[in-house]
Every structure is written in C-alpha cells, then in structure tokens.
Amino acid sequence: MGSLYEIPIDKITGVGEKRARLYGKLGIASVGDLIRFYPRTYEDWSVIKSISETTSDEVCCVKACVDIAPASRTVSGGRWLASTRISDDTGFVKLTFFNNPYISRMLYRGREYLFYGKIIDGINGREMVNPQFAESSKSPIIRPIYSQVAGLPSKSIETTMRYGLNMLPEVIRDTIPNDIIEQYNLMDLKTALCRIHFPLSQNDIERSRRRLIFEELLVLVLGLSTIKNMPDKLTSVKITKDYTNEFLTFLPFKLTDAQSKSISDCIADMQKNNVAMNRLVQGDVGSGKTMVAAAVAYTCIKNGFQAAIMAPTEILARQHFESLNNLLSPSGINVGLLTGSVTAKKKTDILEKLECGLIDLLIGTHSLISDNVVFKNLGLVVTDEQHRFGVRQRSTLLAKGANPHLLVMSATPIPRTLALMIYGDLDISIIDELPPGRQIIDTLLIDGSIRERAYNFLKKNIDEGRQCYIVCPAVDNTDSGLKGVEEYAEEIRQKTFADYRVGVLHGKMKTADKDAVMTEFINGNIDILVSTTVVEVGVDVPNATIMMIENAERFGLSQLHQLRGRVGRGENKSYCILVSEAKNPDAVRRLKALCETNDGFKIADEDLKLRGPGDFFGSRQHGLPELKIADLAENVDILHDAQAAAKALRERYINVNDNELRGLRAEVRMLFHSVGTQLN
Ligand code: ADP
Ligand code: MG
Q1: What spacing in Å lies between the alpha carbon of 287 and ligand 1's midpoint?
Q2: Test site for ligand 1: of 290, 558, 572, most ligand atoms within 8 A of the Cβ
Q3: Element (H, E) at 263
Q4: C-alpha pair distances (Å), 548 with each of 304, 467, 503, 530, 552
Q5: Is the confidence at residue 433, as pLDDT, over 90?
Q6: What is the third-level CATH fold of 244-431?
Q7: Does ligand 1 come within 6 angstroms of the Cβ of 283?
Q8: Does domain 47-140 have CATH number 2.40.50.140?
Q9: Å from CA of 575 to ligand 2 middle
Q10: Is the pTM of this model over 0.70?
Q11: Could you name the CATH architecture of 442-597?
Q12: What stretch of H or E contains 182?
C-alpha cells in the first residue's frame, strides 16, 4: 500500500492532466490518496422494493417494466423533458426526465430495468424524477457515492477507483499488527479497502468502516501521544520574578478567580526551568481574556523582554492597543500598534523602535509576521482568537525570538468531553467565570411573521440611546439566494428605519472602509449595524444591546453564541433575537438550546452532540488533523478500543527497528503532516 502513495494519480487509465487537477482539489495526488478517499454514502441497489411497498419521499430501488415508450419534447428554454410510466405486479410509477434527450434510446417499452431514486406522491400518483436506471439482468449492487467537485462526478471517481484498487498488490502489508487485528476482530486492510468502495452487503460496509475508523483513531492517538512525549522546547527567556501584584494596582477592577488562576498557570509555565510555555487559554466571550494576556505580558516585560499580541482583525488589534495602552503606559511601558493601514512613515518609526527595544509590547494583525519586523528580544507571543491563524503563521512569529513563550487564547470552547479525550494532560487553562455584574442576555427565537414587532423593539432601545446589530448570513444573494447585507440594509433604510442611522459592514469591503464604519459605530454615530459575521470576533461596543440574527439556522451554535457575545458588554440589559423559519426539529432544537443557556461550554457540548465535531476539527483550529472517516463524537466506543490498542502497542511503536509497525508510522506521519506537525 505504502508505495501507492508514490504513484501520481495521472498514472491511472483515464486520468489526464485536467482530471488530475480536479483530483487535486479533493486532496488526492496519488493512487494511495485515491484509495483512501472513502465514499460519502452509498446507493443500495441490492434491496429491491415492490412499488406498493414504497413510501413517499423514500429513496429506493424498484424493478419494473417500461409500459410506454418514453416521449421526449422540448420545453421552454430549449430544455428536454421526457416522460414515461413503469410498473410491476403491485403498481405503477410515472417517470419524468429533464435534460436528457437520449432517454428514448435508453429505455425500451416492455423491457425490465432497475430504477433508483426518490419516490414522491404526486397529484397523479407515484412519481420519480430523474431516477437512475440499469438493466435488471445486471446483478444488484451497492454503489459508492463520493464527494464530487465540478467536472468530476461521483460516477467518474467510481470508475477511476476500480482501476486504482486493481493496482493494489496481491498481498499488502497490513498497517495494524496481527495480534491487534485478531483481538479486536478487525477486517484486514486489503479487504477493507476493497469493500469500503465496493461493498457486497450492508454488513461489508459496517465491517470495513469499523476497521478503517479503528485504524484512523489508532493513528490519531499514537500521533498525539508522540507529540505529548516530544521533548519540551527549551528557551532562554528567563522569567525570574512574578509582577502580577504590581500589575493589579493598575486595574480598575478585581480579577475573577478564573482569570487569576489562568495568569498564575502561565507564570508557573514561564518559570519552569528553561522550558517554553505552550498554553491554550479558553474562555467564553466576555470572560476577560485580554486581561490575562496583559498580565502575562506585563510580567514578561518587567523581566526585560518584549511581548507581541497578534489579533485576527485590524479592528480588534486597534481595540486591544487602545485599552492596553491606556492601562500600561502609566507604568512606563511602551505599546506599539502595527497593522496594514499604518502609514509607511509611522511603520518605519515603529520598526526602528522595536528593533532597538524602545517598544515593549507590540500589538497588531498578521502584519507582525512580515520579514521586516525584527524584535530586540521577543519573550512572549500571544495569539488572540487563534482559530483565525494557521499553525504556520504562529510559528513564523515565534521564530522572531529565541523560543519565546506562547500563549494562545480561544473563545471557542472545545467541549470538555472532547478536550479530556484528546488532549488529556496538555496545557489548557479554562476561564469558566464571567466578571461580576454581567448581564444575562435574554435570547428569543421568532419567525419572520413578527419581524415588525422585533423592529419596534429595536427602535425602542435606540430611542433610549442604545445601538443594535443585525447579522445576515450572506454579503449578497448571488449564490445563496438569501437576502444579502447590502440589500437588507437598503430595505430597512427605505422603510422601517428611515429615521435612523443604518450602517453596513461585510468582509468584502476594503479594510479602510470597514474600519471607518466600525469606528462610527463605536463612536455612537450609527444606530443599527447590518453586517455579516465579521462582527463575530471580539469587538467591544458596550452600548450595543440588541443582536438580531436573520436566518439563524444557517449558523453553528457556537458561532451564534459568539455573535451573541457582542452584546451584554455594558450595564444595560441586552437581548439576542434569532429569526428563523426553520421547521426541521433538529434545527429548532439547536436554536432553542441557545435560548436556554448562556454557558459557552454547555453550548459547545450541545453543538458536538447535534453536529458532530466537524466544527471543532474541520477548521483545524486546535491544530488537530482532519479525519477522513472517524467521527470523534459518534465513534466513542471504537476510540476507547483504539486507545487501549495504542497503549499496548506503544513500546513497539517507538522502537523504530520494529518493521511490522512501519506502515502505521507512515500513516501517523501523513496524518499530522497536514497540520504542519513533523513527527518521526
Ligand atoms: P474576551 O474574553 O471576550 O476577550 P475581553 O477581554 O474583551 O473578553 O473583556 C470583556 C470586557 O470585560 C472588557 O471590557 C474588560 O475590560 C472587562 N473585564 C475584564 N475582566 C474584568 C473583571 N475581572 N471585572 C470586570 N470587568 C472585566
Ligand atoms: Mg477577546
């Protein structure tokens, strides 16, 4: 199997340069990658239903005779429409085909075929639209369905897959050693790879999936334990004294216990002998992570080093700069701001000061990682809302010092269960407490029919001097069909909010324009900000008290919670209004869950239960690799088995002379390579 990763995909019959590029979009470069590209789902043509057995909306396979020769005609727009009727002993179904002028040459009257598709109850009885079909003499099979990209349909991948699997040698070395295969009753690798793509029965699907999920989780667990056992990074950034108490004298408020604990966790890390801190601080929106960063930076600076804070957006960087500059400059600390929009002259000045050590704390966007940014003695790197940064960007910034300490702050809580399972004893601090006096944000779920009432509520709040956000899921309606922010804003400007100041903010605007709008909003010159989720990240406008979210079902729960965190930041009672027409019970349950709790960790747990961990891992925000087939929330039992197996294999795994585990080591390397972690 291993060697197939070295054979480029275009060596397969039928795959030329163009197709190879399309495969590249799916992350497939080699024959090995192809074989590890598992079906998304299956079409089961092996279970044949009689027409009377089928129910409306069911996707199924029927074996039936064509009663009428299909008649094709063109309809408006030059499209083709063909219709016919099929029957078996129990009933008949009307078939409609769109855009296939060849149907009459593919389906013959009086002949029997298999038809696969969705049955619907139309006004004239049972119907199928654009079903797939095959000659009934062909033996019934289960067909794989692959995620496709434009130009590369699932069917074509299926064909290529058959060629790819034929390239597997007669006997392949299994990645999992024999004793484990037997102990956990696993399918062998070659059979599993063949059956996952071309199963002969549902049982085949189950068994091959279980084997491949087990393997993937084993690889994940072995990789993670290797990372945990990697020697600590040494550093020459010596923090000899803790200055937190001095820092506290500048604060206008008392830290929460959770903030204090996080700070002391960090200081303890930095005081550990010559070892660089590598800590993740997780805290719900509004839990006061910035102060944790400020305190840690303060101690670092007082010990004679520079510190850097990298924020994901210009607005946020500026906000951090303003609050920390106010807080720290009385103590003689020099704070600098570096973003894309700082003028060239000012930039030169900042860079010079930075290099000779006149700036102690540099705050900025990813501008911080550009080549010409040189520190005198960088001792601490803080990245805020880390999921916006790739692992590489973070390491580029780290490389500007001699192994500085790293503090990563995240507002997207990893559900506790998942964190424990995956990270075990990794360095995480959790701020699970909000500063005292924080408002509970009342969250309401409504449908569009009472939108006007909601608008009146916004007006009432604005008339009392407050401000509001309205968030829409799309910038424009070109590909979503949803009302975009521009259009939405225009509409309310014309109608309901004609007497109010309405601003627009979205990601496609130029940075300077975005900033201008945001500044106006911060200064109270805009009453209603209609925006996309660009407001999601960390902006602090205490006077904003209502967050209204249109098409709320389009967002993940954790994301909605982040958005909601934009209000309730001041002394006034705040509200979140979710507008949704969703009828689907799952969607409604998700949104209701949000109305019931303000606890980000509970919401993350709920999100995990309802949507799976895709959100947490898909975005790679925690530096974990993306999984192909295993699902950490679904496959907990298999995960436990894989953990036990990893434990049993550990000694042999780290013995590089143990050849039987070569394939497994290679898989571990490949999985973690994707997230930029080099494992041996
Ligand atoms: P987040 O964790 O979302 O980054 P911030 O650091 O932006 O939260 O803090 C939110 C607000 O709470 C800020 O206005 C900050 O000044 C304030 N704050 C932080 N810690 C405390 C505290 N211990 N007591 C009162 N207010 C606090
Ligand atoms: Mg923040």
Answers
A1: 6
A2: 290
A3: helix 257-271
A4: 46, 11, 14, 9, 9
A5: no
A6: Rossmann fold (3.40.50)
A7: yes
A8: yes
A9: 20
A10: no
A11: 3-Layer(aba) Sandwich (3.40)
A12: helix 178-183
Does ligand 1 have an atom closer than 6 angstroms to the CB of 22? no
Tokens (6 digits) for 492: 């309310």
Return the percentage of the chain with pLDDT > 70, whole number.
90
Amino acid at residue number 290: T
Nearest ligand (C-alpha, residue 562): 1
Q: Which residues, at least 6 apart from 401, have a Cβ–Cβ distance to it below 8 Å? A: 237, 306, 375, 377, 378, 379, 381
How many Cα atoms within 13 Å fall on the side-chain side of residue 531?
Answer: 24
- Concatenated DSSP letters of 12-71: STT--HHHHHHHHHTT--BHHHHHT---SEEEE-SSEEPGGG--TT-EEEEEEEE-S--E
Tokens of 252: 């206008």
Q: Are residues 418 and 394 in contact, defined by beta-carbon separation less than 8 angstroms?
A: no
Any ligand 1 atom below 6 A from CB of 256: yes
Residue 624 has pLDDT above 50, yes or no: yes
Nearest residue to 598 via CA among 632, 617, 630, 574: 574
Q: How far apart, in whole angstroms, are the C-alpha atoms of residue 163 and residue 19?
A: 15
Give the residue whose CA is nearest to atom 17 of ligand 1: 288
If you classify domain 1-45+142-170 with CATH, what class do you get?
mainly alpha
Pocket test for ligand 1, best of 431, 540, 572 (most atoms within 8 A of CB): 540
- The pLDDT tens digits for 251-272 are 999 999 999 999 999 999 999 8
Both tokens assigned to 650: 């550990």
Does residue 411's CB lie within 6 angstroms of at least one atom of ligand 1? yes
Whose structure tokens read 């999985």? 671
For the Cβ of 287 lying below 6 angstroms from any atom of ligand 1, the answer is yes
Rounded Cα distance between 329 and 334, Å, is: 6
Domain span(s) for CATH 1.10.150 in the chain: 1-45+142-170
Q: What is the 3-state secondary structure (H, E, C) of 459-520?
A: HHHHHCCCEEEEECCCCCCCCCCCCCHHHHHHHHHHCCCCCCCEEEECCCCCHHHHHHHHHH
Task: List every span in the chain annotated with CATH 3.40.50.300.
Answer: 244-431, 442-597
Ligand nearest to the CA of residue 309, numbered in listed order: 2
504 contacts 485 by C-beta, under 8 angstroms = yes
How far apart are alpha carbons 586 and 593 in whole angstroms?
11
Amino acid residing at 86 = I
Asked if the model's pLDDT at residue 98 lies above 90, the reply is no
Tokens 């407001």 belong to which residue? 535
Length of the chain: 680
Decide: 123 and 98 in contact? Cβ < 8 Å: no
Going by C-beta distance under 8 Å and a sequence separation of 6 or more, which residues neighbour residue 378? Answer: 305, 306, 307, 308, 400, 401, 404
pLDDT at res. 140: 67
Which residue, 420, 425, 434, 426, is CA-closest to 406? 426
Please indicate whether residue 568, judged by its CB atom, sits closer than 6 Å to ligand 1: no
Q: Which of 250, 260, 287, 291 to mutate to test the pocket of ligand 1 (most atoms within 8 A of CB)?
A: 291
Here the tokens at position 548 are: 């209204």
